[in-house]
Amino acid sequence: MKGSCFFDSQKGFEIKEIVIDAHTALIDQTSGGPIQSDPDIVVIGGGNAPLCSAITAAEVGAHVLILETAPKPYRGGNSRHTRNFRSMHTGSLGPLVDSYSEEEYFADLKKVPDGKTDEHLARLAIRTSEECLPWMQERGVRFQPSLSGTLSLARTNAFFLGGGKGLVNAYYRTAQALGVQVLYEAAVTHLEMDGDHMARVDFPHEGAAKSLTSKSVIVASDGFQAGTDWLARACVGTCGEERPDPWHALQSRRCLGGFSGSRRRTGR
Description:
The protein is α/β, with parallel strands linked by helices. It has six helices and 13 strands. The chain is globular.
């Protein structure tokens, strides 16, 4: 891609370079909400990560368009099903009490994959997690104290008020206020590359085939864990059972411990 985005620890994300080879244009725009002008950045996906990317870019002046596969009531992918995130902190932070050190966080993380993790990347994510909560609060996300009980999560996990749907809705409100545009039911079907430049993005919208170009493209639309057909094949290897419908296979509590998530996430 010709557009680049770098992280500055003092200023946050800042677009340092945008180079375009030709005039950008929305091609075959025959229906749906009008795109006011050619986007600087197209963000593919409508969950937590793409929303954060869109907001960050819009805050430094970029014109951003989000292409979300789901219809508006189901926007957000699996982010709408989440309820909290884990954050390192050296003192009280938002709803979090006491402290939760990098070493304790890393020790807890290693227990999940039986120690098989990339320590450099893991520690990078842990160290920067402390910055996330105030960043989220500044962009409309509200938190609530953790539920009382035996899990003792008040130190480690910050719970979203309204769950994942509250998180996603807060980000969409902030994005809208920043002028970010969104097209729902716009599943990207093809990315055309021209060398290192993303020449074209193809997607259907309201019954019409559409294409557009932009200065930069951010792809944030899931992976292996989002593809129910991929997970079903992995499930067969784990459970030793063939299931005709991948979705119902994954919904079964006999398979992968009761996987749950959005039908709109396809892993594409």
